Amino acid sequence: MKRVILESPYAGDKIGMKINEIYGEFCMHDMLVNHNESPYASHLLYTRKYVLRDWVPEDRKLGIEAGFEWRGVADRTVFYCDLGMTPGMEKGINDAKEKGGRYMVRWLPDELWKEFEGAVQNEIGPFVPKRVKNERT
Question: Read out DSSP for 15-33?
Answer without folding.
Answer: HHHHHHHHHHHHHHHHHHH
